[in-house]
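request received
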Amino acid sequence: MSLYLIEVTVKSPIQIADLVIGNVFKQTKCLYIQSNTIKGSILSKFYIEYNINDVIKESNNPSINFHPLYPMLNGYASRSAHLLLHQCKLCSVKIGSDKDTNIFVNDVLTNKELLSKFRFEDFHIPYKCPNGHLFAITPVKGLVIFKDKIYKKIGIDFVQLESIGITRGIGRVEVGMLYSYIGVKPGVKYLGLIYDHYDKIKDWFGGIPKSDIYRIGRGVSRGMGLIEIKFNMLDYKNYIDKRSKEIKDAILKTNGIVILRALSPILKMNGCEFSYKIDLDNIGLKPMNIYGDLNYLSASSEILKGYSVYTNLPKLSIKGLGAGTLYFYKVMDGIDIELLSKNLAELEVKGFAEPYNVGLNIMEVYTDVKHLL
Amino acid sequence: MEYNIDLKIRIKIEKKLNIGSAYAIKTKADIPIQKILIGKKHYLYIPGTTLKGVLRTSLIKSANLLGYKVNYHIDPNELISSDDIVTRLFGAPHDKYSKVYVDPILIDNIETQVLTHISIDDKIGIVKEGSLFTVEYIPPGIEIETYIRGRKLSIEEARALFMSILELNYERIGKAGLINVRIIESDSNVPEEIIKDDIIKTIWEGIKL
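response:
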């Protein structure tokens, strides 16, 4: 089994569009790059340029697990904001005198007692910010980074480009053919993981793929969507050990509560059944229900869709809980925390429920909480 | 048989070149060149779509020499039903993927020039009221480089691609700009079977550096 950390640098404006308003093609509202998009980009290049025909099997029987790519800022990978982060509309950018942010964390994540009794019915958005502004609190939307024990919101730079259609007969602009494209600016960096259980990528390449230019999103034949991808091979055992330790620390700090944060849309498929419930009884976690029999705090829903270059057909659209959804679990009695942490670290890499190989159900243990409590 | 071709192209500006944008920052001229701010530096941006559009026009004009009949319409609705060499090579809406990929060009460290123009009223032969405007240009003599890549091309499609690159030398680009195009042999990747073709060999020998 192989684990790769991929670093993506945008070289020309990228546009992963699902929003078309008239002749304006707008970047999708999803600020990270979904798993299936990066998977398509990499595998298309393998198929078209490196002539690796085995790649086709991946579209029928996927086994390589691509994680979503999140933008990076100053070496920190961002994450989707969740419902327990708030910001004050009046505080501009400062909360307190030494913190360069207007984001603050709900008491649920800073108080062990409140966390252990957390029920959605009792959950209230604070009416007052730490600086005393009343009724100016709003949920944080978009992406945040966690640095020096505080959350900061990050933005992605966009660029607007226009294209016109030229009439070939007289060489002038064709009426009605003015198009605008809003895409991510060159220079933005993303970070993500690839887990290849059967070492397929290594077999195809006879080693680790070299850094190269790939194409992603819309308009790739006319120069948009150029990205440079660097593949860094990680030592799987070291990665799991390091992550297990962080997870174990977080579990001990929360007194046996495990919070999972969704990185991709969440939808469990079991045959013809669809569900948002992720059962982890097998590794010793029982759901900590916060509303009725639900154990999650949902971010807004997200749609996973795509287009197959191979079959020339649109892929099935799947709607799931959005990235930033929080799942709450309690450790069952008599469970070895060491082993549980290792299992969780492995599930982070592999995905928490089927069908993780198509870009669903990728989550991570919310270890930020050990710095907040 | 299908071939992949990578061509590194050197473009020398022969006549002042402007590829404008309605949304570019209008500090320098009324019609500025498209720029992208990366970090703290502004780069001039020549989109791939501009070069690809001119390549397409070139092929429409020269396809007859290769014995092809082509559709010169650009309306997406008409292109959908088209199946000529131009649509096979450069694509059409929906399921006809382009086999040609043109990289955009980001340019830094060049001084652009701003020229002032007027427009003349054809009826009375003097300048139109309020039609004094400035245009930002990349001056002649500047050399820029980019890649044109063909993927899974048949020999016929490769011929058409080389023909359209040759024809670029005679096409207007942007606001009436003219360019000289050469292929840098050392950085290009063309299969030998392709070069053996008579038409491609003639073009290749003529424009390679």
